[in-house]
C-alpha cells in the first residue's frame, strides 16, 4: 500500500485503502463484547445500518477502487474471486474463496493460476455471473479513464504492460483465458505465490459487458454481493444500499447481510462522527464508522465512561511509522550515523506524541508484529524505552562527529499523529541528549509528499509510513527495499534507494512460494537482514479505536483491515 498521504484510497483498504488503516492479533473481543453492547447479543436480520464517515466513497466502480480484501463498503456490493476471512484477529488475515470454489490452483512454477466459479452465482437482475464477466471486469480496469485501482495486474499479467482497456482494444488480454463459463486462467510474467491475495482486489469483480456504462458505471454498478446501489449522490457522499434479492447465502460463506438497508453518509467532521456515535440518538444508535478513529482526547473521555468504553472496537492493521534515511546525502551515507540515531530514539516519547500507548505500539522491526507478515522479533540497535544517548555518542565519535552533529528532519504539518510536528519534536528532543541538534522542516501535506517521493528532491532525514496492500511481507518489503522498484522519474517509495542484488534475489525466491506460511518465515528473515543496514528507524505501529452505536451487534475486527467489518454487523 502506498503511503496514505499520496494515495488515500490505499489506507482504507486498509481502508487501504487503508487501509485504514495497523501488531499482535488483537480485536474487539479483548476490549469489548464481540457480539455488541447490551441486551440480546444474538444477531438478527432487519433494520437499517447507518455509516457515518469523513471521506466520501468516491469512484464506486470496481475498476477504480484501491481496496484490500474487497474493501469494506465496496465488499457489500462487489464480490471477487477470493476475499478476506471475516474473523476476528489473526484468523482474519487468511485468504478464502469468494466467487471461486477455492483460493486458486497454481502451476508448478506459480506462473499460471486457475479458478473455477461456484455454481448458482447471479447478479442483482438474476442473470448468471460468468468467467467472461470477471475477465471483462479486469480488462476495463486498464482503461485510462477508469484508473485508480491496484497496479499489480499491469505488471504481473503477460503482455499487459501497454494494454489500454477494452474501449480502445476490443481484443482483450490473451493472458486471461476463459475456456468455459466457470473457468478462468491467468498467465503471469513471473512466479507469484501471493496471487490469491491479489484476487481479493475489486478489479476481480465481475462486470457484465452489456451493462457497462464506462465512467458512469459507478452511479449504478451491477451488484454481485448481498446489497445493490439504489442511490449514489455527490460522488459517493451519500450511498443507499438495499438487499440484492438474487444474492444467495449458500454461495457466500463470508458476508452475513443482516441489515435490510445500509445508509452511508459521508463528508462529516471526525469530531461530529464520534459525538453522534457517543450519543447514539435515533438512527445513530444503529450506526458505525469505517474511517474515523478516536483521537487521544476523545479516547480519554470515552475510557472514563463504562458504557462508552464497552462500545469501542480495537484493531490492528499492517502499518509502520518510521524514520527514513537517504544514504546518498551526508552525513547519512555513514552507517554509524544512522545507527547512532537508531540508538538515540526515545520510543516512549514518540508513542506519547502519537496519542499514547492505547493508540500506538513501539516498533523495532519494519514488518508489523503479526504472524501473517512473517514477524520476526529483533532489536538491532536497542535503545530501551528512553533511548541510549551514550551509545549514540560513541558511534558519532567513531564517525568523526565528537563535537556533535546538526541535521534537518523533514516532516508534514498535517495533524495526523504520524508524520506530524508532534512526532518530529519528540525525535528532536531525544536526539538532543546524544549531542545531535535537529532542525525541523515542516511542509504542507502536498509539498511534503512531492518532496519525499522524488529521487531528485528526497531529503536525507524524514518521517514516513507504510501500510500493506494485503497481510504479507511481500507488499510491505518489496516497494521499499527492492532496487528494481526505484522510480527515477516518478513517485518513488524505495526511500533508502537500496539496490542490493541479494535482497532482490530473495524477494524473487519468496515470491515463488505458494506455501504462504513458509513465505512468511522468509519475509521475516529478510526484514532482519535489511534492518542491519539501518536504512530506517521503525518507530511505532498504530492501534485503531473506533466507537459504534449502542444497537450495533456482531462486532468483527480482523488484523487484515484493523477496523470493524461492516459485512458482519447486525442492528436491533
UniProtKB/TrEMBL annotation:
Domain Solute-binding protein family: 94-484
Leader peptide range in chain numbering: 1-26
Cited InterPro entries: Peptide/Ni-bd (IPR030678), SBP_5 (IPR039424), SBP_5_dom (IPR000914)
Chain intervals for the UniProt region annotation (Disordered): 27-46, 205-225
Keywords: Signal
SUPFAM superfamilies: Periplasmic binding protein-like II (SSF53850)
Pfam families: SBP_bac_5
Biased segments, Basic and acidic residues type: 209-221
Name of the featured protein: ABC transporter substrate-binding protein
Species the sequence originates in: Streptomyces koelreuteriae
Amino acid at each position: 500500500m502506498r503511503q496514505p498521504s499520496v494515495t488515500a484510497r490505499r489506507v482504507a483498504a486498509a481502508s487501504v485503502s487503508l487501509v485504514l488503516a495497523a501488531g499482535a492479533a488483537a480485536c474487539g473481543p479483548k476490549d469489548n463484547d464481540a457480539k455488541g453492547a447490551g441486551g440480546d447479543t444474538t444477531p438478527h436480520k432487519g433494520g437499517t445500518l447507518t455509516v457515518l464517515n469523513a471521506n466520501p466513497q468516491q469512484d464506486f466502480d470496481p475498476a477504480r477502487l484501491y481496496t484490500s480484501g474487497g474493501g469494506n463498503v465496496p465488499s457489500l456490493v462487489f464480490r471477487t474471486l477470493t476475499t478476506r476471512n471475516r474473523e476476528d484477529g489473526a484468523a482474519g488475515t487468511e485468504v478464502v474463496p469468494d466467487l471461486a470454489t477455492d483460493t486458486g490452483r497454481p502451476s508448478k512454477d506459480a506462473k499460471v493460476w486457475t479458478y473455477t466459479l461456484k455454481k448458482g452465482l447471479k447478479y442483482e437482475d438474476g442473470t448468471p455471473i460468468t468467467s467472461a464477466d470477471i475477465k471483462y471486469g479486469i480488462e476495463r480496469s486498464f482503461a485510462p479513464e477508469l484508473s485508480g485501482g491496484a497496479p499489480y495486474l499491469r505488471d504481473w499479467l503477460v503482455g499487459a504492460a501497454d494494454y489500454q482497456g477494452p474501449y480502445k482494444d476490443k481484443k482483450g488480454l490473451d493472458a486471461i483465458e476463459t475456456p468455459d463459463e466457470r473457468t478462468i486462467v491467468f498467465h503471469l510474467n513471473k512466479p507469484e505465490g501471493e496471487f490469491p491475495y491479489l484476487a481479493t482486489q475489486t478489479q476481480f469483480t465481475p462486470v457484465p459487458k452489456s451493462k457497462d456504462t464506462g465512467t458512469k458505471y459507478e452511479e449504478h454498478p451491477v451488484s454481485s454481493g448481498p446489497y445493490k446501489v439504489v442511490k449514489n449522490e455527490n460522488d459517493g457522499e451519500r450511498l443507499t444500499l438495499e438487499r440484492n434479492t438474487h444474492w444467495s447465502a449458500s454461495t457466500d460463506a463470508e458476508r452475513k447481510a443482516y441489515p435490510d438497508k445500509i445508509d452511508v453518509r459521508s463528508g462529516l467532521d471526525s469530531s461530529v462522527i464520534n459525538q453522534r456515535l457517543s450519543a447514539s440518538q435515533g438512527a445513530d444508535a444503529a450506526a458505525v464508522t469505517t474511517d474515523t478513529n478516536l483521537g487521544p482526547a476523545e479516547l480519554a473521555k470515552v475510557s472514563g465512561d463504562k458504557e462508552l468504553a464497552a462500545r469501542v472496537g480495537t484493531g490492528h492493521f499492517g502499518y509502520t511509522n518510521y524514520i527514513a534515511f537517504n544514504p546518498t546525502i551526508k552525513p547519512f551515507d555513514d552507517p554509524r550515523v544512522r545507527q547512532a540515531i537508531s540508538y538515540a530514539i526515545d520510543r516512549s516519547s514518540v508513542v506519547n506524541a502519537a496519542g499514547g500507548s492505547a493508540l500506538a505500539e513501539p516498533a523495532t522491526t519494519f514488518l508489523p508484529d503479526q504472524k501473517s507478515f512473517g514477524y520476526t522479533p529483533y532489536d538491532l540497535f536497542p535503545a530501551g524505552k528512553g533511548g541510549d544517548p551514550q551509545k549514540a555518542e560513541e558511534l558519532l565519535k567513531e564517525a568523526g562527529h565528537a563535537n556533535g552533529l546538526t541535521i534537518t528532519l523533514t516532516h508534514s504539518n498535517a495533524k495526523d499523529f504520524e508524520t506530524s510536528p508532534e512526532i518530529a519534536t519528540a525525535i528532536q528532543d531525544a536526539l538532543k541528549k546524544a549531542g545531535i541538534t535537529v532542525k525541523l522542516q515542516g511542509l504542507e501535506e502536498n509539498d511534503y509528499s512531492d518532496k519525499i517521493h522524488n529521487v531528485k528532491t528526497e531529503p536525507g532525514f524524514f518521517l514516513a509510513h507504510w501500510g500493506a496492500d494485503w497481510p504479507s511481507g511481500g507488499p510491505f518489503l518489496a516497494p521499499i527495499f527492492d532496487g528494481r522498484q526505484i522510480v527515477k522519474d516518478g513517485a518513488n517509495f524505495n526511500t533508502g534507494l537500496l539496490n542490493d542484488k541479494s535482497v532482490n534475489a530473495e524477494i524473487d525466491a519468496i515470491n515463488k512460494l505458494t506455501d504462504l506460511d513458509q513465505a512468511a518465515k522468509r519475509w521475516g528473515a529478510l526484514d532482519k537482514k535489511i534492518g542491519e543496514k539501518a536504512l530506517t528507524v521503525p518507530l511505532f505501529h498504530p492501534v485503531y479505536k473506533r466507537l459504534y452505536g449502542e444497537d450495533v451487534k456482531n462486532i468483527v475486527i480482523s488484523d487484515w483491515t484493523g477496523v470493524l467489518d461492516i459485512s458482519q454487523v447486525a442492528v436491533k
